[in-house]
Each structure stands twice: as structure tokens, then as C-alpha cells.
Amino acid sequence: MARTEKPLFWIAYSLYTRTRLGYIFHKRQMRKARERFPAGHSRTQPTIINGIKIIPVPILSDNYSYVVIDTASNMAVVVDPADPQPVQACLEEEGVALQAVLCTHKHWDHSGGNRALKRRYRSCRVYGNAMDNIPGLTHPLSDKDTIEFGTRLHFRAFYTPGHTVGHMIYLLDGRAIGGPSSLFSGDLVFLSGCGRMFEGNASTMLSSLDTVGSLNDETLLWPGHEYAEDNLMFAAEVEPCNVVREQKLQWVLQQRGQRLCTCPSTLAEEKQYNPFLRSHSQDLHQALGLQQKQDEDWTSYRARVLEELRRRKDIYKDR
């Protein structure tokens, strides 16, 4: 486990993830965010792909839940409903029936609304990995399990530990709808970033990131947080000469200047400017001042690159 934070942090993390104090803290954060952002922290627009509507729902101070709707059948699936109130409001406004919750991991800012939605919609199923102690879990998943809702909402779950021990990501198969696939990545991958390695080491996280890297370049990325500006500013420090990154940063600054949502990006874009998906890049190795050791295999070296990147990002975030 990569532990660069101070001991007090890990005590707080343990309380947050393993005791009821975590849920009490989460409810407090929900109340504060509702007061501060009554209409949500960002302005979002739905993306419609051949009758499949994906609606980012801004919750808490920088999270996104996603409501995914098959407009032909009025069936809906929700990803990571941390705050049930805005999610339920979205479902009611769209006039759709909630079939399931797809939960990426146990942290309350992704799972805090699971039980409330399950109570509200009795037939709603809650999917996730059993290793993560997800609230309200009814249908445990394993790596590469498929989940289908009707004839068009076809998801594949991938086991991607590192941020938590049971983290999952969900790929909406574009072939069933004649369009690009959509990846709901939780806290594994963000626009130009990746999650902290709370419950895994760099080798584990690298394997999970490589799962993302293996997906089709046209795949749309729907991350769990609005971190784009901060992430691209950090990427500028480690790859200052990356032209694609600079172009994306200027676009993000325009978006965030109007409080507009920055997702989705595509995996093709991410592979060009997201340093955490570029551990193979010689330019990045030079920028970090790293070289492969004589007795070090390629995968171990890339894990060391990722570990150094994450260490620098943690310092950047805390300064």
C-alpha cells in the first residue's frame, strides 16, 4: 500500500471507511454542499447517443453521479449516487424507472445514496464488488461480469483495485446502440488524472490503469469528480512541452470559467495528455528524471514511474 500521507490521515481514513462516523461525516458534507450549491457545483448537459441519454448529476462539492437512460423503454441506471436527492429529482424529471445502481466503490461520496434509492425504488438492484463492503449491495460482481437491462443497456464490469481494494469500473457497450462505448471510471481515472492509491500499491494501480488503456480509443470517459483544471495544471509541471495537454487546458479553463462540466473526454485524448496513462512515455521519464535499471523489467519500471507521479501529485495537491 502506498502510504505517503501522515499517520493521522490514515486514522481518519479508517474511521471514514469502516465506522458509522464516515456516514455521519458524509451527511454533513451533503448538507453543506446543498446549501453552497443549490443547483449543483457545475452546469451540465445530457449526451444522447442513438436514444441513450447520459446525464451527469453534480453532487457534493465536485462529484458526479450519472443517470443513464434508454429513452425507448424509459429504463434508467444510476452510477455512484452519493446524494440521493438530486439523483431522484433527475429520475422524476425524466419520468423513468430506476432499474439499478452501479457502484464503483465503497467511499461514501460514491455510495452514500445507495440505500435511500433502494428504499424508494423497491425493485432497484445495487451492483458492486463484495470486497468493498458497498452499502446496500444486492448483486456482487467479479471482473468482466456483464449486466444487461433490456436490449440496449449492456454493461461490462472490470475489477480495478488500487484506489480501494474492490474498485470497479463500468463500460456501457457502444455496439448495442451503434455508437461509442462509455466508461464510468469512478475514482480510477479522471480527466488527466487518477485516484490516490489508498488500498493498493503502484503495481496494482498500474494493472488497473492498463485495463483502461486497453479499451477502444473512441470510448467516452465519465469520471467521478470534476478535477480537470487541477489535473491539467499538474500535468503541465511534469510534461510542460505537451502541446495537446496545453490545448486541453485552455478549453477546460474556458469551461470552468462558466462552471460548465468538462466531461466526457475520450480515451484517445487521455492517452495523449493524462500522465497516469503515459507511464510508458520516454518524454515523461525524462521529465521525471527516471531511468530503467539494468535488472528492472519494463512493468516494474512503469510501476515506479507511476509511483513517482502519484507522489508528486499528492505533494502538488497538498501545497
UniProtKB/TrEMBL annotation:
Which Pfam family, any one of them, does this sequence belong to?
HAGH_C
* Metal-binding recorded as keyword: yes
CDD domains linked: hydroxyacylglutathione_hydrolase_MBL-fold
Q: Please name the InterPro entries in this protein's record.
A: Clx_II_MBL, HAGH_C, Hydroxyacylglutathione_Hdrlase, Metallo-B-lactamas, RibonucZ/Hydroxyglut_hydro
Ranges of residues in domain Metallo-beta-lactamase:
62-225
Recorded GO cellular component terms are:
mitochondrion
Instruction: Provide this UniProt record's keywords sorted from A to Z.
Output: Hydrolase, Metal-binding, Zinc
The protein's required cofactors: Zn(2+)
Q: Which domain of life is it from?
A: Eukaryota
Tell me the Gene Ontology biological-process terms attached to this UniProt entry.
methylglyoxal catabolic process to D-lactate via S-lactoyl-glutathione
Gene Ontology MF, one: hydroxyacylglutathione hydrolase activity
Does the entry feature the keyword Zinc, yes or no?
Answer: yes
**UniProt family annotation:** Belongs to the metallo-beta-lactamase superfamily. Glyoxalase II family.
NCBIfam families, per database record? GSH_gloB
This protein is called Metallo-beta-lactamase domain-containing protein
State the organism named in the record.
Answer: Cirrhinus molitorella
Organism phylogeny: Eukaryota, Metazoa, Chordata, Craniata, Vertebrata
